[in-house]
């Protein structure tokens, strides 16, 4: 791979009343108080203008990667064409005096088709693998990756067409044997499928307050050590009572029944080191079930793009374990998550509606069972949801322009979108939304004590029917004082927020940050915002405001996501999410489970790498969109959300997690930091890598392609080659593969994306 | 007058930079901050002082932590909280741990002397009675002293993003509430830069976090060293395989163009070096750190235990000044207040007792100050089962008597009657009467920040200095 060929072409000091101009770069004019930069039409494949007030910290302010000059977020200086030429003029506000320089990259090394595909799959999936790269549409075409090429959109369209992996459905097919298929009924969701007898019971579930685990404590006749298949108690007189003293657990309970038999049969079927399974293989805390399903989806589900979109949305409409509703429940969490899998390519307004009416969210942000003010008792409506639905789910804190930059008032100050009076007002809207009725004794859902699956029901007597003043001063309501009136009130406020001009750029920036870059240009944000607003990106989409398909296509297909030149822009790209980096290694080498029920059981990664499904520390997600770490990123006034969870401890924990996976598999205790204690239960498949390991150079090229999209620097390549060929280590075969892989995952090229 | 304009972000950052001359743009938790010794007067530090911030993330409903017990005031409290039981949020009067305050029994205070501590915080009562603990009442982020009239007529500037979690959390940590976001950096980070000469021999940052990245401890040039309460995490095989170590050193030592790659390589380099130094310091103790002792304990217990262990290693780490950050989340009690808050108080009470006993056994009780911070207080009125975001709240400081003038309630305990004309913004949202600045300045003076640097550390401090009890002790709590 190329080294970076940035050159510094010019540094200009802006002093009073002087004009610099050079033929081949850019010029500065001081026109009274304003500074005007005259930007020449592009010369090199990538050119960047930077500003500094102190000659130390250089802040990028404009960029050209082959089309037009554009601003770099968060700057929104006036850019205009210069009449009679192909140049552009950029006017900087009064007071921005200092130094300007231009950097450029004169040579862009071309990437191979496979490298381009790998880079795209790194953005759009939980990680590329050899087979997915090789089967990418038109991968051998001569025009692959060119502006006219539709291969990436073809891939997206193929992804959209794949039948969704619903988390709740996957679990229902493999949990309670009594679940029946109601997915086709009115008032039921498509993921309310029935149990599939072929799968048996692979996951824990609850009926009422009784938990049915996948081990010997399961009370289902035949399944655990409590009752035999005929429902008779297994006691010391029973023929199934164990004869081996090792077959009693730590509480003296007999380990017997279907789950235990399956487990023992499974162990004897493998049993070779390093697969360290034991007879507790089928035993696990119920609260980990939702993660077992999630990991299955991330690693093995074919609808990767849908799963990535759902994962992004789950970080936007956050319901997290801390302070939330019964972690030992399973179905309500999966059902909430499936709002995002179902609508991943649908419409944002539908997502907002289902989230708002979800009793699971209602419990988390406490608008469930919320009543109108009661002067006698001195109580007022809960304000939590009214605040967060604005701050996080729709309009954000500041009035935005269509390109995501902040609007300013006459004094140059940013303008808040709402104040506490608005929250107080909107809290009244979210009243009278109550827990749905329980489904009853023979319920087809995991109800525990309450129903958190069906949407909240309306209680008109709890609702505040006073008309509400909206953000623009207009009035919502009054509506008829019946259940329908309550729904109209809530829908009216959600429409009001959904149609606010902030939503497209606010949501666009969030989604871009999840998939491609931390600091999208205003032009990129605007393109995605317009796709959201018009429901179309380059002709595809529903045509309705809020179209997710158009939004996602804009995020992934915009030139800023696809251009190879931008790899040379230091501020382009992002730090990848730690969980996605872990999933990438799992997918690249086809992680395979050795567990009885095939679980891919990553354990408690929120404690180590600070990210795990369902484990956000709060409604504000794992990181804030505007987090700026100290150093070159903060100095340039740029953001990098993922660095908020990259610290002295987590940096090493993540490195160790990746190394554990490569060296052992999913392992915990003495073997690593990602699995259950002292179990090594799922391993990577290095068969292909082993076959090419004789030639270290070829091996590195291959691992570079699937782990770094071919971006490994020549320096790091040389370092790793030398280490792997160290004579005293005498590395061969799979040992060599693991040695190279563990070094590659420590390189910035693997950990970042650009 | 628009105060927001007065300290613009740009000017503010410029100001902070001045205190860090000479460090260029080093990002480091592990750096030679000794270079910055010129920032404050270079005196020799021979004593040891440590601040421990216990951040109650989510907004502690602290008018249930410190409650008026005087009958008439309790009646008002009970009424505004909606009574005891049902949808009411009041703690029964008889359950409170009784304490008295002479400061509050004056026209500048609440006007009465009887108060009660939450039933699940008995250790605070013990410390209070021993003179080792003081409360500060009705603290909140302010830009200038602001009366209810001034709040309503808009004649005083208001903090940005009032009543929102991220805004208030950041305001407590930057002490620049006229700016939204973390750009002004944390006052703990600024204090470390001003005081960097205190730990000249150390390889580890003055700021140590047991709870991950935070704004408080991030300065212009410094970031906290972040450690795990369960022990030092080392890079797998780095110490055992020299070939691997050399390759890792080469990879992390490369010059990278991408700012993300550059930041990643730099952080990982520092993490590895700091873990090596930290591990060796903890291993050098007479009773080395053993994570198995604390496994199974509460997170506050684990984190405070690690803090006391690091204090024990202060000589090995060459530390004269340290700032610790310990966060406990889960205080956002919209849904249900009484039971979850009790559970958290039980955890805090136990953890603080264990921690403070360890401090006492090391004889460090006058060298250590533990204080609480939290987003905000909560509405006194109920939303049916819990309370919502508000503003002023109550806090406590613990240190050894003699160092602290304990057994008192400082600040002004507010009138809790709904719609009272002095502090209620409506719904029992209490306007703060003591600024976070005064509260933190009390700690900063004790820590050793010279007067000349106080406005660098606490930029708005001069807006509040006219009401200081004495020049080096704004509230009169700690003996500097």
What keywords describe this structure?
heterodimer, A: 754 residues, alpha+beta, Immunoglobulin-like, 6 domains, 5-stranded antiparallel sheet, 4-stranded antiparallel sheet, 19 strands, 33% helix, 10% strand, disordered N terminus, B: 480 residues, alpha/beta, Alkaline Phosphatase, subunit A, 2 domains, 9-stranded mixed sheet, 3-stranded antiparallel sheet, 13 helices
Helical proportion of chain A? 25-40%
What is the terminal separation of chain A in angstroms?
14 Å
| Mean pLDDT over the full residue set of chain A | 90
Shape of chain B: globular
3D structure, described in words:
The complex is a heterodimer of chains A (754) and B (480). Chain A is of the alpha+beta class. Chain A is built from 26 helices and 19 strands. In chain A, the strands form seven sheets. In chain A, strands 1-9-4-5-6 form a five-stranded antiparallel β-sheet, with no helix packed on it. Chain A has a four-stranded antiparallel β-sheet with strand order 2-3-8-7, with no helix packed on it. In chain A, strands 10-11 form a two-stranded antiparallel ribbon. Chain A is globular, with a radius of gyration of 29 Å. With 480 residues, chain B is of the alpha/beta class. Chain B has two domains: 3-231 and 291-467, 3-Layer(aba) Sandwich (Alkaline Phosphatase, subunit A); 232-288. Helix content of chain B is 31%, strand content 12%. Chain B has 13 helices and twelve strands. In chain B, strands 1, 5, 6, 7, 8, 9, 10, 11 and 12 form a nine-stranded mixed β-sheet that branches. Chain B is globular, with a radius of gyration of 23 Å. The interface between A and B is large, with 89 and 87 residues.
């Amino acid at each position: 791979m190329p080294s970076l060929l940035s050159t510094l072409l010019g540094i200009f000091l802006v002093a009073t009343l002087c004009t610099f101009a050079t033929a081949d770069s850019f010029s500065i004019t001081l026109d009274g108080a304003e500074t005007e930069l005259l930007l020449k039409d592009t010369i090199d494949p990538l050119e960047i203008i930077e500003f500094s007030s102190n000659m130390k910290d250089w802040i990028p302010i404009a960029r050209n990667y082959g089309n037009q000059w554009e601003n770099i977020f968060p700057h929104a200086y006036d850019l205009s064409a210069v009449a009679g030429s192909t140049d552009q003029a950029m006017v900087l506000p009064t007071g921005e005096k200092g130094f300007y320089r231009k950097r450029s990259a004169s040579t862009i090394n071309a990437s191979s088709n496979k490298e381009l595909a790998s880079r795209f799959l790194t953005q759009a999936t939980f990680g590329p693998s050899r087979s997915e790269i090789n089967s990418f549409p038109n991968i051998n075409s001569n025009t692959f990756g060119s502006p006219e090429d539709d291969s990436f959109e073809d891939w997206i369209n193929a992804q959209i067409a794949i039948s969704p992996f619903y988390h709740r459905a996957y679990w229902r097919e493999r949990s309670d044997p009594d679940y029946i298929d109601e997915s086709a009924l009115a008032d039921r969701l498509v993921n309310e499928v029935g149990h599939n007898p072929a799968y048996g019971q692979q996951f824990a579930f609850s009926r009422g307050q009784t938990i049915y685990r996948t081990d010997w404590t399961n009370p289902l006749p035949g399944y655990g050590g409590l009752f035999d298949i005929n429902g008779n108690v297994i006691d010391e007189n029973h023929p199934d009572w164990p004869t081996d003293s090792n077959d009693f657990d730590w509480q003296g309970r007999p380990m017997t029944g279907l789950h235990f038999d399956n487990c023992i049969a499974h162990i004897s079927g493998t049993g070779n080191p390093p697969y360290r399974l034991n007879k507790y293989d089928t035993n696990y805390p119920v609260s980990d079930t939702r993660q077992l399903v999630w990991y299955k989806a991330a690693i093995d589900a074919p609808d990767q793009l849908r799963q990535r979109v759902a994962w992004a949305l789950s970080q936007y409409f956050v319901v997290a374990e801390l302070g939330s509703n019964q972690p030992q429940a399973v179905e309500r969490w999966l059902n909430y998550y499936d709002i995002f899998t179902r609508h991943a390519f649908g419409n944002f307004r539908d997502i907002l509606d289902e989230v708002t009416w979800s009793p699971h969210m209602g419990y988390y942000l406490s608008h469930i069972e919320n009543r109108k003010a009661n002067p006698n008792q001195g109580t007022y409506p809960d304000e939590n949801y009214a605040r967060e639905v604005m701050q996080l789910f729709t309009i954000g804190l500041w009035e935005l322009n269509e390109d995501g930059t902040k609007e300013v008032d006459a004094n140059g100050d940013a303008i808040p979108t709402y104040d506490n009076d608005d929250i107080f007002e909107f809290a009244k809207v979210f009243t009278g939304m109550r827990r749905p009725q329980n489904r009853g004794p023979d319920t087809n859902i995991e109800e525990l004590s309450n129903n958190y699956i069906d949407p909240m029901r309306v209680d008109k007597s709890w609702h505040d029917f006073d008309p509400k003043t909206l953000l623009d001063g207009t009035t919502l309501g009054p509506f008829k004082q019946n259940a329908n009136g309550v729904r109209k009130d809530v829908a009216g406020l959600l429409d009001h927020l959904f149609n606010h001009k902030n939503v497209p750029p606010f949501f666009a920036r969030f989604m871009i940050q999840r998939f491609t870059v931390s600091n999208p240009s205003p032009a990129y944000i605007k393109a995605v915002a317009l796709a959201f607003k018009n429901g179309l990106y380059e002709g595809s989409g529903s045509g309705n405001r809020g179209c997710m398909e158009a939004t996602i296509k804009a995020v992934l297909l915009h030139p800023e996501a696809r251009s190879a030149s931008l790899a040379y822009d230091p501020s382009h790209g992002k730090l990848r999410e730690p969980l996605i980096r872990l999933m990438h290694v799992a997918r690249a080498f086809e992680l395979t489970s050795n567990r009885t029920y095939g679980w891919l059981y990553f354990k408690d990664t929120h404690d180590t790498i600070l990210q795990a499904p369902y484990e956000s520390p709060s409604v504000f997600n794992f990181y804030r969109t505007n987090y700026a770490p100290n150093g070159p990123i903060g100095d340039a006034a740029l953001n990098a959300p993922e660095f908020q969870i990259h610290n002295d401890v987590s940096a090493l924990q993540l490195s160790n997690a990746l190394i554990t996976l490569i060296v052992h598999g999913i392992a915990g205790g003495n073997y690593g930091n990602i699995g259950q204690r002292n179990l090594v239960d799922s391993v990577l498949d290095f068969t292909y890598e082993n076959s090419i390991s004789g030639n270290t150079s070829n091996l590195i090229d291959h691992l570079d392609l699937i782990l770094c999209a071919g971006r490994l620097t020549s320096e790091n390549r040389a370092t790793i080659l030398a280490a792997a060929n160290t004579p005293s280590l005498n590395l061969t075969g799979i040992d060599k593969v693991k040695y190279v892989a563990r070094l590659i995952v420590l390189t910035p090229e693997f950990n970042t994306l650009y | 007058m628009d105060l927001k304009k007065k300290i613009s972000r740009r000017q503010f950052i410029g100001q902070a930079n001045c205190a860090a001359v000479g460090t260029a743009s080093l990002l480091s938790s592990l750096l030679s901050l000794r270079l910055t010794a010129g920032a404050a007067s270079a005196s020799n530090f021979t004593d040891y002082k440590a601040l421990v911030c216990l951040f109650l993330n989510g907004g502690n409903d602290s008018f249930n932590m410190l409650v008026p017990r005087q009958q008439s005031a309790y009646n008002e409290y009970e009424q505004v909280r909606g009574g005891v039981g049902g949808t009411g949020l009041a703690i029964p009067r008889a359950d409170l741990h009784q304490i008295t305050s002479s400061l509050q029994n004056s026209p500048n205070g609440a006007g009465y002397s009887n108060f009660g501590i939450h039933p699940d915080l008995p250790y605070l009562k013990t410390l209070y009675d021993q003179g080792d603990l003081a409360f500060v009442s009705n603290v909140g982020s302010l830009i200038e002293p602001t009366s209810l009239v001034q709040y309503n007529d808009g004649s005083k500037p208001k903090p940005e993003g009032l009543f929102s979690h991220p805004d208030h959390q950041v305001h407590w940590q930057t002490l620049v509430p006229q700016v939204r976001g973390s750009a002004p950096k944390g006052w703990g980070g600024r204090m470390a830069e001003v005081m960097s000469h205190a730990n000249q021999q150390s390889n580890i940052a003055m700021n140590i976090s047991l709870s991950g990245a935070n704004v408080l401890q991030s300065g212009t040039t410094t970031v906290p060293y972040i450690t795990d309460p369960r022990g030092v995490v080392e890079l797998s095989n780095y110490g055992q395989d020299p070939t691997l170590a050399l390759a890792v050193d080469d990879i992390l030592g490369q010059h990278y163009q991408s700012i993300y790659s550059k930041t990643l390589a730099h952080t990982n380099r520092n993490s590895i070096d700091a873990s090596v130094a930290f591990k060796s310091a903890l291993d050098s103790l007479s009773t080395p750190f053993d994570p198995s002792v604390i496994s199974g304990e509460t997170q506050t217990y684990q984190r405070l235990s690690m803090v006391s262990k690091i204090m024990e290693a202060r000589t090995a780490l060459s530390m004269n000044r340290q700032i610790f950050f310990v966060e406990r989340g889960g205080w956002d009690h919209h849904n249900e207040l009484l039971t979850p808050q009790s559970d958290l108080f039980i955890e805090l009470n136990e953890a603080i007792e264990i921690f403070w006993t360890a401090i006492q056994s090391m004889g460090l009780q006058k060298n250590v100050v533990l204080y609480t911070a939290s987003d905000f207080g909560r509405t006194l009125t109920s939303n049916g089962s819990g309370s919502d975001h508000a503003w002023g709240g109550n806090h406590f400081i613990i240190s050894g008597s003699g160092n602290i003038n304990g057994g008192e309630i400082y600040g002004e305990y507010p009138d809790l009657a709904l719609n009272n004309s002095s502090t209620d913004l409506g719904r029992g949202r209490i306007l703060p009467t003591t600024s976070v600045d005064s509260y933190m300045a009390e700690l900063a003076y004790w820590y050793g920040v010279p007067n000349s640097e106080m406005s660098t550390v606490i930029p708005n401090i001069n807006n509040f200095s006219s009401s200081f009890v004495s020049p080096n002790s704004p509230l009169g709590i700690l003996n500097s």
